[in-house]
Specification:
By secondary structure, this protein is α+β, with helices and mostly antiparallel strands. The protein has helices spanning 2-10, 31-38, 44-47, 55-69, 102-115, 158-170, 178-185, 233-245, 260-275, 281-287, 308-311, 317-320; strands at 24-28, 81-85, 94-99, 123-127, 130-136, 142-148, 151-155, 193-199, 209-218, 222-230, 249-251, 254-257, 295-300, 329-338, 341-350. Strands 4-5-6-7-3-2-1-8-9-10-15-14-13-12-11 form a 15-stranded antiparallel sheet, with helices on both faces.
């Protein structure tokens, strides 16, 4: 019986619950392992600035701590989760989706009861025949919780939970979006992935928003984002032409290259600096580029802190909004056109 329930939970499609007006989704197939990995990096202290905020901090941090201290342990299914971010994108405009069963909901409620107020009586509200439980965190904040077979949905905003119910009942979820479905078709499970729908490089054409996937990879001094931007055939042709028209730029702490010859030239400059034993970390990042890419950028994020207008034309919205978080790193970014995909790799090299 327990095995059958686990199998049913594993087959629950959480994307079928996400409202289609969502433009950013975070996915983890093992959030406990992700948190463990983040705690063992050389730049762990810097990552404190990246820590999950708002609902993420409460739900994921609280559950992980409660499960660890109480030796409860999050089961394998509950470690798999999604987070959707909604306008106006404050820490309160988030929805967390777990693959979960009744025992997992009890674990979550027990965690709330231990960490929140003693006056812990949920209020039940019915929306379109579905029950939403509203839990008081204190005298000003509440959590709205909705359960669907195999899934647990949590948000500060009851209105966002109502949108989740609408998406499920009306068939208007993100899973019904043709482009987003294509992104998921070839996607393998990963520790941490971000999906974002926005103009990936505003300098090209702000009228071309598209879905992109960003898989996170971590090691001691560097973290990477890899994946694809998914374009229509017409958009691919336009992007290819516009990339070639971007200006090549090289100045203190910044390199922008839009052709292989110029990229190779700057890589060779970095090699010369290495041979002369006066190579900087910025030079090393240039030397590590691939000259096969259609577009290359290297930027010392601290040098452009407060001068974001220089970099913003090349960065997607979700990076622009959090640019100050990346100041301890040098960013290396490369795009390569392959079929109707724009493959990308972002490398953030820790400067300490």
């Amino acid at each position: 019986m327990q095995l059958d329930a686990a199998n049913r939970n594993r087959n629950v499609n959480l994307f079928a619950l996400i409202p289609d007006d969502c433009t950013v989704v975070l996915q983890s197939d093992d959030i406990s392992a992700c948190l463990d990995e983040l705690s063992n990096l050389n730049y762990e202290r810097e990552l404190e600035r990246f820590q999950f905020q708002g609902l993420l901090h409460l739900v994921i941090g609280g559950l992980d701590e409660y499960a660890t201290e109480g030796d409860h342990g999050l089961n394998h299914e509950m470690n798999r989760l999604l987070v959707s971010f909604h306008a106006p994108f404050t820490p309160r405009d988030q929805v967390v989706y777990f693959q979960a069963d009744a025992d997992d909901e009890s674990l979550f409620v027990d965690m709330l009861r231990e960490y929140m107020t003693s006056d812990f009586l949920p209020k039940e509200e019915v929306y379109r025949g579905e029950t939403i439980r509203v839990y008081p965190l204190n005298h000003e904040e509440y959590l709205s919780v909705y359960t669907h077979p195999g899934a647990l949905v949590i948000s500060y905003q009851k209105s966002l939970v109502e949108k989740v119910i609408d998406a499920r009942l009306d068939g208007s979820s993100l899973d019904e979006d043709d482009t987003f479905s294509q992104v998921l078709q070839k996607k393998n499970p990963h520790l941490l992935t971000l999906y974002a729908y926005n103009p990936f490089m505003p300098i090209l054409n702000e009228e071309i928003p598209c879905w992109g996937e960003y898989d996170f990879h971590f090691n001691s001094d560097v973290f990477y984002l890899t994946g694809d931007i998914h374009l229509s055939l017409d958009d691919e042709e336009e992007v290819s032409l516009q990339i070639k028209e971007c200006p090549v730029d090289k100045k203190e702490g910044l390199l922008v290259s839009t052709d292989r010859d110029s990229t190779l030239h700057y890589m060779e400059e970095a090699y010369v600096a290495r041979l002369a034993n006066n190579q900087t970390l910025f030079d090393e990042c240039m030397a590590n580029l691939s000259n096969e890419a259609s577009f290359s950028l290297v930027a010392d994020m601290q040098a452009y802190d407060g001068h974001e207008s220089v970099l913003n034309p090349y960065l997607p919205t979700f990076v622009q909004k959090n640019a100050d978080l990346f100041t301890p790193f040098i960013l290396s970014l490369q795009y390569s056109l392959v079929d109707n995909r724009l493959s990308h790799i972002w490398t953030f090299t820790y400067k300490n």
